[in-house]
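Thread: Newbie trying to understand structure tokens

Hi all, I'm a second-year student working on a class project, and my supervisor (Dr. K.) asked me to get a predicted structure for one chain before our next meeting. I've only ever worked with sequences, so writing a 3D structure as a token string is new to me. If someone could post the tokens and maybe explain what I'm looking at, I'd be very grateful. Here's the chain:
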Amino acid sequence: MSNHQNPTHSIELTREATNRYVARNAAGVEVTFGRGEDLMSPVELLLAAIAGCSSIDVDTVTSRSSEPTEFKVEASGNKIAEENGGSHLEDLNLSFNLSFPDDEGGRKAAGLVDRLVKLSHDKYCTVSRTVEHGTPVAFETDVNLGGGPTTTDQ
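---
Reply by user tm_fold:
Sure, no problem. This is what the structure looks like when written as tokens:
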């Protein structure tokens, strides 16, 4: 769960079509998302990232004792419209629904879940901790119109 290095994480996003994008990491793994019936939205990806981060923390440790027979996590949040026209999510919640076999390993794994979820929230899940800390997001633009690039920092 812990990582004593300070790695830089990055993805590259490319547009496939209107409201359809592909995010690709350095290893070449791709996720397609956007706006449409067959796509996850960026907000849903955020919820998936929060749920996935904590799920990895919990699964990594519990699966050493027992393979789960069910492992489902629901992530939810309420979209709030702001007076200035912007929006954000509030009341973010993860709901873990896990089952393990009724044997020694399963009981050991089940007994670890509450503690692991708390540790993930309090210490290890970079995604939810970043959201809770309210880390600023910087923007750069590079727009071309038939000539050289124009870059601005915001």
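A couple of things are worth pointing out once you decode it. The chain has a mean pLDDT of 93. The two ends are 34 Å apart (CA to CA). Feel free to ask follow-ups in this thread.
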